[in-house]
Structures are given as structure tokens and as C-alpha cells.
Write a structure and sequence with these properties.
InterPro entries: AAA+_ATPase, ABC_transporter-like_ATP-bd, ABC_transporter-like_CS, ABC_transpr_LolD-like, Cell_div_FtsE, P-loop_NTPase. It contains seven helices and ten strands. The chain is α/β, with parallel strands linked by helices. The strands form two sheets. A six-stranded mixed β-sheet has the order 6-7-8-3-9-10, with helices on both faces. A four-stranded antiparallel β-sheet has the order 2-1-4-5, covered by helices on one side. The longest helix has 16 residues. The structure holds adenosine-5'-diphosphate (ADP) (2 copies).
Length: about 230
């Protein structure tokens, strides 16, 4: 479902963030992206959801050649990708339910569908009781669960998570990982960048290490591989 061939990314100021990435990720894989700060992990993820364009090389996501994508086609690709960030990025003036519903309103789903699906995903992340709360009234773990609900509400085939547990304590982080595992179990591909050694070593999924813009390791049932 994701294929990169000879992918380079040079930022306008001259930073070579990625220097020749080749990889294939199949539907329903769970992949950890590890590596030192500044290695290129975020850039790698941004290329997949077309936040950034490659300078060179080919990236195919769900059959779309996304480096060559026309501007008006971008929403079609993004609709199929849920993105989760370390800092949650919820809309502070909208309630929990409104934050989730908003992702469906932008693709003009009917009101009835929106109400039903919002309830469904809030149950899945166990936040039905907080539907009318505002993000500032929630703990960090709860805010991240809202972000996950928003990311999955349109049934994406792929979830990109950039350090989703980076702001959470260990116990809360495990709760988030259980949710992501469940979502993966239901058929969604997950690509997650992380510095969390305990999580990577316990879960034993595919691990791709990026250093200085290149893939230096790609293991099935891999390990974190760095001292913290
Ligand atoms: P990581 O996520 O592994 O910390 P990044 O992908 O954020 O790495 O960064 C890779 C390299 O690209 C770093 O040298 C970083 O400073 C640089 N970089 C990241 N974003 C930008 C940007 N928008 N403009 C210029 N350089 C950037
Ligand atoms: P955690 O220990 O997971 O960080 P908190 O101590 O922040 O959690 O919150 C515990 C519970 O209290 C959560 O269910 C959260 O939604 C609720 N809560 C925290 N702050 C507020 C607030 N300002 N208004 C309403 N509920 C709150």
C-alpha cells in the first residue's frame, strides 16, 4: 500500500532530510520508525500524507503517485489517511464530539451518518461520557484518544502516528498502544514514529531505523536498538 523508490527530500534551506529511501509497506502492517532526533522520521511521515513533496523519487500510496498529485486530488488521498501527533492538535473551541464530527463534515457526510459514526468511534476509544467536554477539560491521554477517534472516523486504510505517546506518562501510553493495536487488528495499517524503547521492545513489530536520512535497519519483530 506504500511504496517508495529512491526518495530524497531536500528542504529549501538546503537541509538534506532524506537521502535515498526505498521501502514497501503492505496493507495491515504495524511499523515502528525509530532513530535519533533530526534523522528524518517526521519528514518521512510528512511525505506519506503529502504534507511535504519529495525532491526526487517516487512515492505510491494506495495506488496514487503522490509526488505527482494534482492539488485538487490531495483531499482524496488524505481522506484515506488518519494522522495523530504528539501534541494532539484538537480544535480548542469545539467539543469532543464536534472535533470528531468535523472530520466528517469536511467531506460532506450526511448529518445522520455523522451522528451515528461519532458515537461509534467515541465508544471505541471509551470516551462516550466526555462527548460534550472541551479538550482543555480532558487529561492528556483522553485528548489523544479524541485525536485517535478523529483519525479513524472516516475509516482510513492507513494511520500515521508521529510520537503519539511523547507527551504521556507510561501507563497512559500503554492505553494508547492498546487502542492502536485494536485499530490495526481491525485492518488498518499503522506507521508510528517513536522514542519509546519499552513499547517497541514489548510489541515486537516491524522496526525501521532511520539515521541521517537513510534506512539503516529494517527488521521483522524488531527492537528499539538504541540506549535511551
Ligand atoms: P526527526 O523527525 O527524525 O527528528 P525531521 O524529519 O524532523 O527528523 O528532520 C530531518 C532534518 O531535516 C533535520 O536536519 C531537520 O532540521 C531538517 N528539517 C525538518 N523540517 C525542516 C524544514 N521545514 N525546513 C528545513 N529543514 C527541516
Ligand atoms: P491524568 O492523571 O490522566 O493526566 P487528570 O488528572 O488530568 O488525568 O484528569 C483526571 C480526570 O479529571 C479526567 O477524566 C479529566 O477529564 C478530568 N478533568 C481534568 N481537568 C478537568 C477540568 N478542568 N474540568 C473537567 N474535568 C477535568
Amino acid at each position: 500500500m506504500i511504496e517508495m523508490q529512491g526518495v530524497f527530500k531536500k528542504y529549501p534551506d538546503g537541509n538534506d532530510a532524506l537521502k535515498g529511501i526505498n521501502l514497501v509497506v503492505d496493507q495491515n502492517e504495524f511499523v515502528y520508525i525509530v532513530g535519533p532526533s533530526g534523522a528524518g522520521k517526521s519528514t518521512f511521515m510528512k511525505l506519506i500524507y503529502r504534507e511535504e513533496k519529495p525532491t526526487k523519487g517516487q512515492i505510491v500510496v494506495n495506488g496514487f503517485n503522490i509526488g505527482k498529485l494534482k492539488q485538487r486530488k490531495i483531499p482524496y488521498v488524505r481522506r484515506n489517511i488518519g494522522v495523530i501527533f504528539q501534541d494532539f492538535r484538537l480544535l480548542p473551541k469545539l467539543t469532543v464530539a464536534e472535533n470528531v464530527a468535523f472530520a466528517m463534515e469536511v467531506i460532506e457526510e450526511p448529518k445522520k451518518v455523522i451522528r451515528k459514526r461519532t458515537n461509534e468511534v467515541l465508544s471505541l476509544v471509551r470516551l462516550k461520557g466526555k462527548a460534550n467536554a472541551y479538550p482543555s477539560q480532558l487529561s492528556g491521554g483522553e485528548q489523544q484518544r479524541v485525536a485517535i477517534a478523529r483519525a479513524i472516523v472516516n475509516n482510513p486504510s492507513l494511520i500515521i502516528a508521529d510520537e503519539p505517546t511523547g507527551n504521556l506518562d507510561p501507563e497512559t501510553s500503554w492505553g494508547i498502544m492498546e487502542l492502536l493495536e485494536e485499530i490495526n487488528f481491525r485492518g488498518t495499517t499503522i506507521i508510528m514514529a517513536t522514542h519509546n524503547k519499552e513499547i517497541v521492545n514489548k510489541m515486537r513489530k516491524r522496526v525501521i531505523a532511520i539515521e541521517d536520512g537513510v534506512i539503516v535497519r529494517d527488521q521483522e519483530r524488531g527492537e528499539y536498538g538504541y540506549e535511551v
